[in-house]
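Methods — Computational structure assignment.
A single polypeptide chain was analysed. Its primary sequence is given first, followed by the predicted tertiary structure written as structure tokens.
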Amino acid sequence: MGQIHDPVNVLFAELDDESWARFFFDAGVFFWSTVQSPTLPDSNETHQYSLRDLGCSGTVEAADLVESFDAARLRIHFADGRVLELNNSQDRSWLGQVKN
């Protein structure tokens, strides 16, 4: 098995109406859309994908996106004080620490 290239590639969040929000970065550009359910690309010998439940739930109070020339960060702020971060730099993405 190879090295992990991006610990996180896409972030899905379930919405109250049972649809899902899909957040991701591609070449440092932020995208989001609404989808019916989380989906994975097909795994193959070179690439493997998995879904991971982050255990975050509750009301989202705010979200902010900070972008610079070579990096970006999406922060999702929950009503209970937790903050979830999706980071991207040099076309690599990772999940920031879920803060309480």
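Note: Strands lie at 10-14, 20-26, 29-35, 60-67, 71-78, 83-89, 92-95.
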